[in-house]
Amino acid sequence: METRSVRHGYTTGAQGNRLHYLDYGGDGTTMICMHGVIGNAWNWDAVASGIGDRRRVVALDYRGYGESQWSPSHDYRTSDHAADLTALVESLGEDTVDLMGSSWGALVAIQYAAENPGRVGRIVVVDVEASFSQSETDLFPRPTSHADHAEVRTGLGFAFPNAPEEMLELTALTSFGPVDGGRLAPKHDPYFFERWPFRSDDHWERLKGMETPALLVHAEDSFVNFDVMAQMAHRMRNATLVQVKNSTHVVPVDNPDGLVEELLLFL
Prior knowledge:
Elements (H helix, E strand, L loop, with lengths): L6 E6 L5 E8 L4 E5 L10 H7 L4 E6 L16 H15 L4 E6 L1 H12 L4 E7 L22 H11 L5 H11 E4 L3 E4 L17 H4 L6 E6 L6 H10 L3 E6 L6 H4 L1 H11 L1
């Protein structure tokens, strides 16, 4: 399949780890986009196309994901990703950036913005709650590998029932890679089949009084509680909450056009 022009970039993270990112170019302030726990940088491909006349879009592969280096000691806390984000911002040479995160990525954005308020112009929080009742190991079952590309596509079709065909194909091609035995496995550290570190997070105090202009986005068909996101918006001083229809949890994959529509109004 064909993809729009994008540059692969690499930098060094907070612990000397190699980080990979996608630089889509575009006009205006740099917006750094961050994926969720089973995603990677390519999740933002369609969104990058939709906002390229408003922002330069850079999408990060977290440590342990995509083409970025895994942590041998499983240092995968939200604070670890925020430290890597700090390193990325420095390497890009930007005084201020905008941030957008989906799920776990939104928590990273919140933590960075709370700790560096002068360096964040705007923040977009996509479909996440500020704290969790589930434990780090209370995970839903997921196949650790697939027999072939067709099986990957079938699984993604169930996960993202509204996604454009091009986005499903791109996700299949970029989120799964070959492993021993001739199968295809998600391109992340297998640690994330066992533990999701962000489940121990609590970001409510970071939201309190946050003045950074913020857009909170809830997915209509998500398990994330709309009322909780409304409470999050209420805690912040300059936040707007919207809902994207026809989308499950990973909005930039399942309904990128709906997300772009809200982003263009906000940006």
